[in-house]
Amino acid sequence: MLSQPSRKYRPTPVPDLPDRQWPSRRIEAAPVWLSTDLRDGNQALFEPMDTARKHRMFRMLCAIGFKEIEVAFPSASQTDFDFVRQLIEQRHIPDDVTIAVLTQARPHLVARTLESLQGARRAIVHLYIATSPTFRETVFGMNREEVTQQILAAVEQTRRHADAHPETEWVLEFSPETFNATEPEFARDLCDAVVDRWGGTPEQPVIINLPATVEMATPNVYADQIEWMHRHLAHRDRIVLSVHPHNDRGTAVAAAELALMAGADRVEGCLFGQGERTGNVDLITLALNLYTQGIDPQLDFGDIDAIARVCTECSQLPISPRHPYVGDLVYTAFSGSHQDAIKKGFAARDPDAPWSIPYLPIDPADLGRTYDAVIRVNSQSGKGGIAYLLETAYGLRLPRRIQIEFAGVVQQAMDRQHQAGQSAEMSAAQLMALFEATYLAPTTAITLVESRLATAADGVTQTVKATWEAGGARFERQGSGNGPIAAFLDALDLPVRVQWYEESAMTQGSDARASAFVGLVTDDGRYSAQGAGIDANIVSASFQAIISALNRMDAFRVADPAMAFEAAAH
Ligand SMILES: CC(=O)SCCNC(=O)CCNC(=O)[C@H](O)C(C)(C)COP(=O)(O)OP(=O)(O)OC[C@H]1O[C@@H](n2cnc3c(N)ncnc32)[C@H](O)[C@@H]1OP(=O)(O)O
Ligand SMILES: CC(C)C(=O)C(=O)O
User: Fold this and answer.
1) How far is CA 71 from the centre of its chain?
2) Which residues bind Mg(2+) (predicted)?
3) Which is more confident, 105 or 339?
4) Which atom of ligand 1 sits closest to the CA of residue 103?
């Protein structure tokens, strides 16, 4: 790279617009959308779509709700021409959808383009000519006047054809290609001349489309350019002002949004930002950005995965897993603090209140995505994500103290998996297996064989008759206390006491199960441990939790639960 890039590259000139209004405006309604997936998107593919794929894409665009669809560059190929003919002759175009076709401003290409539209109910004829100094001088070898005459000749040719074919409702669109690199006054004069020559009216306006053919500046510069045109065009009331941003600097969405604030009425772009080089502006991101501000985008992305499937099959191009709103990973949190916040957000969620789940700008369910992938556990995860997965998959609600402890167990297992070159992610099933190996494993020092609870004659005291095995020997004892747990501990007759205890239902109905969690400490305070039990009966679950805690106390422990998990996993 150059040490002094200014020798080679110059900053883009900024329009003189000191009283710009757009920074304090807001977007309050959806623009008119035009999908150019079948034209600008299609012309940028290794292998342009065949007729079958074009039909599939067209049907999907209609189903999404696009009312204007640029379907082809009919003079470019027989496939494009035939596709337009099929749409018209086979009546594939819904009554509320208008097709658009693009052509250079050259007489034979305009003629072929108009021919393709014969019999259309309504059609947008989109004429373009590049207008920037580089194109005028280097590509065309024409001055401003010659460029103006060339486009006006194409407008007249189209006008004559339109007058001769009143059975079609004709709409003219004009694009000064490379608008963003064109002197604003020249672009304005050209657009005014086109509107005059066509005879645009407020009832039948001309679409003036101002492309950032190659994105060259920060989005605010494009917004200035659009606002300048919006304020200086002679016949603003006879114009639908349209923008067509490309994404060369990665800021097409921002450019389109600021352009709408600056006065644009319409946006042209492609789904998932397909299109030449780095693509056209991504209409899905734009539309869903509006949606998350409470604005109806007038486009339906309620099954975004199905839309992504059609797009990738038609274009043969992948979509990044981090693509806004649709990528495989965009509703997934791996990192611990994010998971913790999401879990708390879902727990506190009021379905009638505005959406405010941390780290999720949109409800995945609105786009047909499930919550399954919202939280995934890997080595970056913490207790929140682990607890979320166990709760959503198994209804197992871990108390905070167990969450903290179990997160450490998961972390160690993850490190071992990582060192063994295995997957760095842990599924809910794997987490449950590790939980069972850690807290519920039967291959431990003490095993509860049987317990029977009864109420003593005083009607208050609880008695427990328990049988358990420890170190190969079988024990059977009776104990009593003011509750089942006290009675059970009395039967065990060990120098331990309960520090804390929590229980909760895991499922409801006939297959109901309960989980119980306990913290035990030895009377001398030297050892402590936490345990868990799961059983159809909550009292049995609490006894198992005590046995679990005893087994996990250093004084009693014989098995490494993480090793047990590894054995289960293989
Ligand atoms: C920014 C955009 O996306 S614009 C749309 C781009 N899409 C396409 O071009 C679709 C596919 N294109 C094609 O099939 C062909 O280019 C055609 C049929 C349009 C034209 O083919 P050809 O006549 O063989 O020309 P070619 O492909 O070499 O294009 C260059 C010619 O177009 C001219 N040209 C380019 N844009 C325009 C324009 N808007 N108006 C008039 N002439 C133009 C150039 O000056 C050049 O002319 P020259 O050969 O006299 O120097
Ligand atoms: C022809 C115009 C609309 C275009 O595609 C562009 O400038 O990118």
Assistant:
1) 27
2) 40, 244, 246, 280
3) 105
4) 19
Enclosing domain of residue 359: 336-367
The structural domain count of the chain equals 4
Do 74 and 113 meet the contact criterion of CB atoms below 8 Å apart? yes
Residue 484 φ/ψ region, left for φ over 0, alpha for ψ in the -120 to 50 degree band, beta for the rest: alpha
| Domain-ending residue, one of 393, 420, 440 | 440
- The enclosing domain of 562 has a CATH number of 3.30.160.270
- Are residues 421 and 355 located together in one domain of the fold? no
Whether 17 is covered by a domain: the verdict is no
Threshold 0.95, pTM exceeds:
no
Residue 561's pLDDT is what? 34
Indicate whether 161 belongs to any domain. Answer: yes
Regarding whether 495 and 423 lie in a shared domain, the answer is: no
Distance 104 CA to ligand 1 centre (A): 6
pLDDT at res. 556: 63
Q: Would residue 328 count as lying in a domain? A: no
Band (pLDDT 50/70/90 cuts) for residue 23 is: very high
Q: Give mean pLDDT, residues 462-485.
A: 90
- Point out the ligand 2 atom lying closest to the alpha carbon of residue 246: 8
Q: Give pLDDT tens digits for 496-512.
A: 999 999 999 997 666 78
Give residues with Cβ within 8 angstroms of 70, minimum separation 6.
34, 35, 36, 38, 39, 40, 99, 100, 101, 102, 124, 126, 268
> What radius of gyration do the chain's Cα atoms show?
34
Q: Say how far apart CA 396 and CA 473 lie, in whole Å.
A: 33
CA–CA gap between residue 487 and residue 498 (Å, rounded): 12
- Ligand 2 within 6 A of CB of 242: no
**Beta strands at 32-35 and 68-72: parallel, antiparallel or unpaired:** parallel
| ipTM value for the complex | 0.96
**Nearest listed ligand to the Cα of residue 146:** 1
Residue 560 scores a pLDDT above 50: no
5, part of any domain: no
Q: Are 75 and 217 in the same domain?
A: yes
Same domain, 398 and 486: no
pLDDT, tens digit, for every residue of 122-154?
Answer: 999 999 999 999 999 999 999 999 999 999 999
* 450 lies in the same domain as 423: no
Residue the block writes with tokens 């045109």: 229
Binding residues for Mg(2+): 40, 244, 246, 280
CA separation for the pair 495, 10 (Å, rounded): 81
Read off the tokens for 162: 């339109």
The mean pLDDT of 349-353, rounded to a whole number, is: 94
Domain boundary among the residues 425, 440, 455 is at 440
396 and 382 in a common domain: yes
Shared-domain flag, residues 512 and 546: yes
Q: What does DSSP assign to residue 281?
A: -
Same domain, 521 and 403: no
Triad 119, 122, 125: Cα angle to 5°: 95
Instruction: Kindly report the protein residue whose alpha carbon is nearest to atom 7 of ligand 2.
Output: 213
CATH number, domain at 305? 3.20.20.70
